[in-house]
Amino acid sequence: MNLTLDGKGALYDQIARALKLEILEGRIAAGSKLPSTRVLATALGVSRKSVLQSYDLLCAEELAIARAGSGTRVAKAVPMRKASSEIGSKPQSQYAARIDSLPPVSLGAGHLRGLKYNLLYGEPLVDSALFHSWRRKLSAAALRAGPSYPRAGGYLPLRRAIADYLGRRRGVICDASEILIVGGTQQALTIVERTLLDPGDRVVVEDPHYQLAVHSLLAHGAQLVSVRTDEQGLVVRELPKGKTRLVFVAPSHQFPSGVAMTLARRLDLLRWAAQGESWIVEDDYDSEFHAGEGSLPAMRSLDLADRVIYVGSFSKTLFPSLRLGYIVCPRSLRDHFFKAKMLDDLGSPALEQAALATFIQSGQYERHLRKTVTEIAARRHAIVEALQRLAENHIELGPHRSGMHFVVWFRRLGFDRLDAFIERAKSVGLGLHPVHPYYRHMPARPGLLLGYAGLSPAQLKTAADLFARCCEGM
């Protein structure tokens, strides 16, 4: 018998794994006798004890049977492994098939990571002092949260703190009982999909759109209808007639265009949803980072028909690895959302919830926000001012008064030269990312999605200089 040991772990484990592979692949027939422990030990050059232990392990897993006086035999009812050509040849569900059909995600753009001046959306503003404070709060939170399972709906002090914050900062008046703690916007959308959508149900998304939301909806089997946005936000008059189950929008800061939906459009959308008994998912992902006079209140604050499912997250205001967010649930959907959350993961991690509750209740969260908003504004000002000199001849800047990104549109560059331009930028250490992958219908001209939160003002000025150099001779 020729066995190949993989060198991983204890010797008896290696022998047992090698024998198991031979049995499952059918090279050792069901019911046949295994070599004596002495013979196999000699053949492998190992101790007899190691072989004995490996046989005991196979017997414990019911792959072999040992009988006194007749040795050890392979069990007669051993499930045979399918040929490798058959494995994975067909998805196990329609959901898996839909996932396989999804296009690549350009968010993150891994091939451009590592560049010194990477204008990548989603790179957070890192505050080392925040992490030190967070570590201390986690230690203290362990005593309050305890070792038991968390509540599926979320840690009650955190839900109270969020309700208070939303009432003061976003105009959303709600009770703690209406707030469901989730693992960020993606899980919030998953819960909405499981509760409200059947495959084939019609869902409206903005064009351009947030890729991960669109992919989640497609994977769930939704029939997507893209409705364009203009300088006032979603064009409500172009919404489809007939039954539409859901509309996914980011009215405070549309992604990626940066447009804020006007009050008139918000009211039109709310009327449309109420008349058609449709639901609105309001993704309020970065409304805190607004310059000047402040952003409009959340659309949920205008909702008299209780049709808005308000979703918020701490990924941008604190750090993405926290993986905590929340849903403000319409009353008629609350119990279904809470049950769907329970069935998904039993509840979000209690320690992080308890630490976040203290962070908000102590006022430290809002102090951190004020500091972060000031720093983000300084970074925004640095890159916008540096790019303004290119605006007349080469580019046009999209809305840039809020958030951590904006779009620039080329005035003369065509799509046929865009890849070469991005490669030229890469050669000088500048990471640039096209915006057209976020469109269901190709825009009239090429543009770039510029994220600036991850670079200092000085670095952003250098990045803008490199951008200007790439534009020379364009």
How does this model look, in words?
The chain is an alpha/beta fold. 39% of the residues lie in helices and 14% in strands. It is built from 14 helices and 15 strands. The chain has helices spanning 11-24, 37-44, 48-60, 94-100, 128-145, 156-169, 185-196, 211-220, 263-276, 334-345, 350-361, 364-391, 418-427, 457-471; strands spanning 64-67, 71-74, 117-118, 179-182, 202-207, 223-230, 233-234, 246-249, 279-283, 308-313, 325-328, 395-397, 405-410, 430-431, 447-451. Strands 4-11-10-9-8-5-6-7 form an eight-stranded mixed beta sheet, with helices on both faces. A three-stranded antiparallel beta sheet has the order 12-13-15, covered by helices on one side. Strand 12 (395-397) and strand 13 (405-410) form a beta hairpin. The model has no long low-confidence stretch (mean pLDDT 91).
Biggest sheet character = 8 strands, mixed
Please tell me how large the radius of gyration is: 29 Å
Uncertain runs: none
Q: What gap, in angstroms, lies between the N and C termini?
A: 69 Å
Average of per-residue pLDDT values: 91
Beta-strand portion reads 5-15%
- The geometry reads as globular
DSSP E strands, number: 15
The number of helices is 14
Q: What is the string of SSEs from the N terminus onward?
A: HHHEEHEHHEHEHEEEHEEEHHHEEHEEH
> Structural class of the helix and strand makeup?
alpha/beta
Helix content percent band = 25-40%
Instruction: Give, in spatial order, the strands making up the sheet with the most strands.
Output: 4-11-10-9-8-5-6-7
